[in-house]
Specification:
Jelly Rolls, mainly beta, three-stranded antiparallel sheet, seven-stranded antiparallel sheet
Length: 115
């Protein structure tokens, strides 16, 4: 689906909008609904940086978890397990570097049956 030249992808936890993409990076806006979470996952070929634009999230990174508010940033390294949980409805800017591709996801846990 295209809207304002951005691809919109629906997910069980909300949706994301691809703002810009090329062979070595992408920029996405993730919209996480309150009480929903992404799968526990990692990526072989990319690092990510999350910036909370709106709302409040709980971010799992490895064995640690962090509460992030608007304006706070978290870096996720290649092969590091991670997930996002919406404490409130939230918007997170995701910048991925390396070889960003959706099929790079390795899922370990997923409440929506995708692992």
């Amino acid at each position: 689906m295209q809207s304002k030249n951005h691809t919109i992808v629906k997910r069980p936890w909300g949706e994301y909008h691809v703002l810009e993409k090329d062979a070595t990076y992408w920029l996405k806006k993730l919209f996480i609904r309150k009480g929903e979470q992404s799968s526990l996952q990692s990526h072989k070929n990319r690092d990510e940086i999350w910036i909370v634009l709106k709302g409040k999230i709980k971010a799992q990174k490895g064995d640690a978890s962090f509460i992030l508010n608007e304006g706070e940033i978290l870096k996720i390294s290649k092969e590091e397990k991670h997930r996002i949980y919406g404490i409130t409805d939230a918007c997170v800017l995701e910048a991925a570097f390396g070889e960003p591709r959706e099929r790079d996801i390795i899922r370990y846990e997923d409440e929506y049956g995708r692992a």
